[in-house]
């Protein structure tokens, strides 16, 4: 039997089927394509026919200058940018820009905002894409950011720089040369002084501006040509009134302060001469309200020094039974010959008394076993305040120690200060629960407390209103041998806190501080010179550079 015709027929039939099947499929595909072009069983959403929304929007803040960046999207020709201050509501637009931006190799588009912002203010910003060919604009991308402080060449004015009628303005010569200083009255921004800076001023990096009004608020601006290089607010001092004992004209008599204090009237202000040392060869006990200050002298910045010396020159105390409104030291150096910090105190209050306030303002304290100690008898002190001070080289009684169960100290306030090289707990009251408030805020603390000691130690005693620890920088603890770990706050009251930072060499061994952010660098990397007592922040990327620690050291 010949199978060849049969095989041929079968093959032919198979080929015909394949051709037919291919034709059918092709027809269906064509029909489907035509149907897709002409018919829909649903309506298209026109809202998707638009540009893609800019993504990864971010703000880089440098003081009052801001640069925005975002991921560029296809077919976008330009961008609209709007700013407001209303937390992403954009009810009131305060600035609006149209820009193409600058596209970088990293795939982001950048826009440096040409106008400066108010300092330390929260803003909202939103960005949308625009296509000139007619494609509908994109949706908005929006974020919040907060501006920083104005990048100023001015040095902050201290209490030593201001009198009742003048100010000593100082700056750092960086960038374009400073040319002019203007002083405006704070109340109405009227210009009251315009000073053209001389070559001598620029060499000295300061000038003295006089002819101002006592107890008046002003704004000081410094310029390079027409460009503002910095500003700050200040107020002149009030003219001293009441009983004023001015010792500035008496020179060459180191005992003049000790000789004068017993004879003055209650409420007197004693003015010391800057740069002069006043020796205390005996302890002195207050029985009246007294204020001791360094007198105004814009030719020197070194405060007067109160110096406890000798075997009997140990400290200030009070007379038994005294009722005193206040004892205040302002802008003075208080120190002793007790370099080992083992015997003397600035204040060692041992007698029954009632005192409204003990105040150290803009002072420097050094070489004491303890700066302020209370002991022995029943006493009631409303407030101990240490503000804008630099205190170092203290021994086993630390900064403030309450050392008797009958010592009532209502408020212990330590603010805007630098505390370093403290050989014990910083603030201590393991005797009673009579304190209402303990506050440590805006302080730079380094080599304090001593290894295994506490920043604040109340044992199990309580503080009725609370313990607040805010906006501080804590560096390494004071070493004992090779050991530097320290403890935070021990108390029957839980401490609260926010905005605090610790350096990488701060090692906690318990009772952790509240509200702490860890900084990656050591204290020696963050601060300019820890041995020399210069704690100026050197790292411009540090999160607390202008919000934590003693403000005198803030980065700018």
UniProtKB/TrEMBL annotation:
Record-linked InterPro entries: DUF4957 (IPR032530), DUF5123 (IPR033427), FN3_sf (IPR036116), Ig-like_fold (IPR013783)
One Pfam family of this chain: DUF5123
Residue ranges of domain DUF5123 in the record: 438-553
Domain of life of the source: Bacteria
Residues of the DUF4957 domain: 277-421
UniProt name for this protein: Fibronectin type-III domain-containing protein
Organism of origin: Niastella vici
């Amino acid at each position: 039997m010949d199978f060849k015709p049969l095989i041929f027929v079968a093959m032919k039939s198979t080929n015909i089927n394949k051709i037919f099947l291919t034709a059918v499929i092709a027809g269906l595909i064509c029909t489907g394509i035509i149907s897709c072009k002409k018919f829909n069983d649903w309506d298209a959403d026109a809202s998707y026919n638009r540009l893609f929304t800019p993504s990864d929007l971010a703000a880089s803040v440098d003081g009052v200058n801001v640069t925005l960046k975002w991921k560029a999207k296809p077919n976008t020709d330009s961008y609209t940018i709007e700013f407001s201050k209303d937390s992403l509501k954009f009810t009131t637009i305060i600035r609006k820009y149209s820009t193409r931006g600058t596209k970088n190799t990293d795939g982001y588009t950048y826009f440096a905002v040409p106008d400066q912002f108010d300092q330390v203010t929260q803003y909202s910003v939103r960005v949308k894409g625009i296509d000139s060919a007619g494609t509908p604009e994109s949706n908005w991308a929006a974020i919040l950011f907060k501006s920083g402080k104005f990048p100023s060449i001015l040095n902050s004015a201290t209490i030593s720089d201001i009198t009742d009628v003048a100010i000593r303005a100082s700056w750092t010569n960086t960038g374009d040369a400073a040319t002019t200083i203007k002083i405006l009255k704070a109340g109405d921004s009227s210009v009251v002084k315009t000073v053209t800076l001389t070559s001598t001023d620029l060499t000295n990096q300061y000038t003295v501006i006089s002819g101002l009004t006592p107890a008046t608020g002003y704004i000081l601006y410094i310029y390079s040509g027409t460009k503002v290089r910095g500003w700050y607010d200040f107020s002149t001092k009030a003219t001293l009134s009441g009983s004023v004992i001015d010792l500035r004209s008496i020179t060459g008599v180191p005992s003049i302060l000790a000789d004068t204090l017993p004879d003055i009237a209650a409420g007197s202000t004693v003015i010391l001469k800057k740069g002069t040392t006043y020796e205390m060869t005996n302890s002195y006990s207050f029985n009246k309200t007294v204020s001791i200050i360094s007198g105004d002298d814009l030719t020197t910045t070194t405060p007067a020094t109160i110096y406890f010396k000798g075997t009997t020159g140990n400290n200030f105390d009070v007379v038994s039974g005294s009722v005193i409104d206040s004892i205040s030291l302002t802008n003075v150096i208080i120190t002793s010959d007790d370099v080992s910090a083992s015997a003397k105190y600035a204040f060692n209050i041992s007698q029954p008394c009632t005192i409204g306030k003990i105040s150290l303002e803009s002072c420097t304290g050094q070489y004491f076993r303890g700066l302020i100690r209370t002991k022995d008898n029943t006493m009631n002190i409303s407030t101990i305040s240490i503000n804008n001070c630099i205190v170092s080289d203290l021994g086993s009684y630390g900064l403030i120690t309450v050392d008797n169960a009958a010592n009532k100290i209502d408020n212990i306030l330590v603010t805007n200060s630098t505390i370093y090289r403290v050989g014990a707990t910083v603030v201590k009251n393991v005797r009673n629960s009579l304190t209402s408030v303990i506050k440590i805020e805006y302080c730079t603390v380094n080599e304090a407390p001593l290894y295994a000691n506490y920043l604040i130690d109340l044992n199990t005693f309580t503080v009725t209103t609370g313990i607040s620890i805010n906006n501080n920088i804590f560096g390494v603890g004071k070493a004992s041998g090779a050991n530097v770990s320290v403890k935070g706050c021990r108390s029957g009251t839980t401490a609260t806190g926010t905005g605090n930072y610790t350096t990488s060499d701060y090692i906690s061994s318990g009772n952790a501080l509240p509200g702490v952010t860890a900084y990656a660098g050591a204290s020696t990397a963050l601060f300019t010179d820890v041995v020399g007592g210069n704690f100026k922040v050197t790292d411009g990327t540090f999160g607390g550079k202008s919000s934590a620690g003693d403000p005198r050291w803030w980065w700018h």
